[in-house]
Design goal:
Pfam families: DUF4828. The protein is mainly beta and 113 residues long. The protein has 1 helix and 10 strands, in the order αββββββββββ.
Length: 113
């Protein structure tokens, strides 16, 4: 019994500075963004993290998943990144155009402004 009590006090604890685990479902949803030509696009991320833009399968492979960032490499080798804050994805970066777009919920009417 004494050895059991001692083992309770000497068990290793996880380091406190360990990052929170990423939740892939955080990125799942349908978003809109307005490009630098003022065209509105639809970005969809499925539960399997499949990426669609304007209904077209981007054939992109997940290269990084963290708590607030999901990165893909598209079929041409360009990086596509979705970045979030504490509550939802908010930015979309397209390396092929070297441009970052603001993401809005597909239900959000603000983007039409």
């Amino acid at each position: 019994m004494v050895s059991f009590l001692i083992s309770l006090f000497h068990t290793k604890k996880a380091p406190k500075n360990q990052p929170d685990p990423a939740d892939p479902l955080f990125f799942v949803g349908t978003w809109q963004f307005k490009d630098h030509r003022n065209r509105i696009h639809r970005l969809e991320i499925g539960p399997d993290l499949k990426l669609l833009i304007d209904g077209k399968d981007m054939s992109a492979k997940v290269s990084l998943l963290t708590r607030y960032e999901l990165s893909y490499i598209d079929k041409f080798g360009y990086k596509l990144e979705i970045r979030g804050n504490e509550s939802q994805p908010i930015k979309f970066y397209d390396e092929s155009e070297n441009y970052t777009y603001d993401l809005h919920s597909a239900n959000d009417s603000k983007i039409a402004d």
